[in-house]
What we know:
The protein is of the alpha+beta class. 34% of the residues lie in helices and 19% in strands. The protein has helices at residues 13-24, 53-62, 67-74, 98-110, 178-186, 245-254, 276-282, 314-321, 373-392, 405-416, 440-450, 456-473, 485-513, 532-541, 546-550, 557-570; strands at 2-9, 29-33, 47-49, 75-81, 91-96, 115-119, 122-128, 131-137, 142-150, 159-162, 165-168, 191-198, 201-203, 213-215, 238-242, 290-295, 302-306, 332-334, 337-344, 361-363.
Amino acid sequence: MKQFDVVVVGGGHAGTEAAAAAARRGACVALISQAKSQIGTMSCNPSIGGLGKGHLVREVDAFDGLMARAADDSAIHHRMLNRSKGLAVQGPRIQADRTRYRNSIARQLSTYQNLTIVEGEVVDLVVSGDRVIGAILAEGDTVRSGAVVLATGTFLGGKIFRGEERLDGGRVGESAAHRLAARLRDLALPMHRLKTGTPPRLDGRTIDWGRLAPQPSDDDIWWMSTMPAAERLPQLACAITRTTPRSHDIVRRGLASSPLFGGAIEGQGPRYCPSIEDKIHRFGDRDGHQIFLEPEGLDDHLVYPNGISTSLDARVQQEMVTSVPGLERARITTMGYAVEYDHLDPRSLDHRLALPQLKGLFCAGQINGTTGYEEAAAQGLIAGLNAAAHACGLPHVTIDRAAGYIGVMIDDLVLQGVTEPYRMLTARAEFRLSLRADNAETRLSTIAMEANCLSGQRLFHVERRRELRDRARSGDTNIPVKDIDILREVEEDARYAPYVARQEEEVARIRRDEKIVLPPATSLSDVPGLSTEMIDRLRSSAPSTLGEASRIRGITPAALAALWLHARKAS
Length: 571
Ligand SMILES: Cc1cc2nc3c(=O)[nH]c(=O)nc-3n(C[C@H](O)[C@H](O)[C@H](O)COP(=O)(O)OP(=O)(O)OC[C@H]3O[C@@H](n4cnc5c(N)ncnc54)[C@H](O)[C@@H]3O)c2cc1C
């Protein structure tokens, strides 16, 4: 039997960040994943960042995480979204070479001496009383640990749909994790179903690029990480095309065999990333939907047609694709599909991404009802830091809504829960003027230093840039070219200063309310003036402070006043 401080189950975006973050805090970590060769795989589009998501990548980087550097190591197309708007809502997004991205994650993980990668399927948890103390592999081996992080993505009870075809799998060609899914249900955890989907992949040599509007990579050089790769890879252009009324007719005719519309899929899909059949059903009056043709790598010909995710029958997919201008001769290399999987109601987690019901168990990524690599990585970071804290007796790490998008996402998840896959959006952050993608290092490096999760090299880098920032604030514009982003950050701080000052009062109120501790869920019925409806709503999210209660949907000002009065009397 092997013994570790932290076991992480799943080598996707959440699992790799969780394992690396726990290791950076000094924990001895085992990262267990079904296939070693698939660690760091991008299940869907080979792109990192975007609106709101780019903020998350930069925030993970402020904690010395993996994602931003892997993005820089593999970027073959750069696009700063919302460039014409203020820095607060700009979204850095890169198109990655899929293989180079995965290789970069594997290379970064290999530099951690205290991180062991184990290939295998976890089928059970070792539970002792109300504590999780390890995991059991399919072959029967037990791995003991002080904490376990579940980062199983779309694999728990994963079922793949394409037209009338049904396959078992968490991703095409990779088996689902059925035994672990059954075990989590046996443990009476609140598990539900969600779904997501992916488009067909195209052979780029069969696309008529000459007919399409090209979209070149940005001219100016920018990076995802503040400690970037030495050099940029060669940059490739993307292209844009559109579906046509004929494509829509083909899709409508194909709906008869659609698992989505025929009721075979029960889980809700992502509102902000709908399938093409969903778009045509919901926005039937549109004469076309944009498709971004995104190359998947420097050394292969695959192209990802962003915008036509689908689970329609293979024949319908082929017909639909060839009805699009520029794709008349396009050959599909892999058909699109949908996957439905189990997820945990994130309201059963606390802000450390721990399950209070089962001590030592943490969850991160798609298992918590989110969608997206960046959302997964950001949760992996927090779960990994806190799993290490739990196992090694270190202080826990949380980020509040005023400090980062990571804080906004986790607060939304654990207080509101999800009814569809949760995606980060700038609109979800109320303090977005101060939460810019470009100032993540400034906002979060103190928390990262306190968590003791920065390498010596990163620590030096952060301190050096802090001095440069101080110099820039006092009017010195003589900043090294590689740190020129600091000048822009300081200029932007000055521009937003009056608005940010106005927000500070609201931030102070939120932080004050976070200090008012509420009674445990079991004694809410003792609070005078709380209706049964309010008690039910509070119980399902289990807020521990007045601040958290105030952000639960449907909690009335009267209920908050009753809670405040009760907390004041109790103290
Ligand atoms: C078909 C498809 C389409 C998608 N479309 C989009 C999209 O359009 N937009 C978007 O933002 N996101 C999309 N996603 C979601 C995106 O891929 C995920 O959000 C992201 O990969 C989640 O990261 P994760 O680390 O939580 O899980 P994953 O990346 O899924 O990684 C999970 C890992 O855990 C391993 N694992 C699972 N169970 C076990 C076990 N019991 N034992 C050992 N190892 C285990 C798996 O082998 C895998 O390596 C899509 C995903 C799929 C599958």
